[in-house]
Automatic annotation (TrEMBL):
Its EC number is 3.5.99.2. PANTHER family: BIFUNCTIONAL TH2 PROTEIN (PTHR43198), SI:CH1073-67J19.1-RELATED (PTHR43198:SF2). Gene3D superfamilies: Heme oxygenase-like. Pathway: Cofactor biosynthesis; thiamine diphosphate biosynthesis. This is Aminopyrimidine aminohydrolase.
Amino acid sequence: MSSAEPLSARLWRAGEHAYARILQHPFLIGLADGSLPREQFAHYIVQDAHYLRAYSRALSTLSARAPTEDAVRMFALHSAEAIDVERALHESLLGDLGLTPADLDRIGPGPTTTAYMSYLLATTASGSFAEGVAAVLPCYWIYREVGRVLVRDGSPDELYARWIATYGGDEFDAVVDQALALTDTLQVSPAEFAACERHFAMAARYEWMFWDAAWQRLQWPF
Ligand SMILES: Cc1ncc(CO)c(N)n1
Ligand SMILES: Cc1ncsc1CCO
């Protein structure tokens, strides 16, 4: 089956419900209006540091498995940039939140972070290349859309505004455009498309769960 509609647009529909729910989540409402308690934001930043480390490895895996040099190069760059973002953002924000790298290691990845990281690492390693791309794509795309909405609304909180600027800016916009353009070069059979849809929907739902885990400050039971 061939379809005139780009693959990325067909995948987006699989994540639309999660995206709508993310925009309504009290964590993001609070980030935008400045009412989000610092404890919840700190939980998010710590978990996101762990997440980005795994995410970088997932992108490196895709780089190694990519069918073209352009795709090898793009994922290798994005993998390195994910580490740069983790270092820059989290070093500055962690300090302002009164947290140290030792706190980060001591706290470790929580239940939702572990589940999401494991899912991305497994899918990029064991799925087809297109399936791996579909699994990582919501991370790029949803953050750009969320970043745009938050930049438009602005946040009265300087710390939250600094976080928002990372994802709502032109640099991240261009990175996401590259990932979407690569996605649209992939040829997938109907069966592979169905698998890609499931991965996209799964990762988009994990994105909602990631905000929700920070909102609840979700911990392991013991
Ligand atoms: C959980 C999560 N998803 C996506 C991004 C952006 O890639 C991020 N920093 N954290
Ligand atoms: C998707 C993504 N999120 C944080 S970094 C990165 C890739 C390249 O900047």
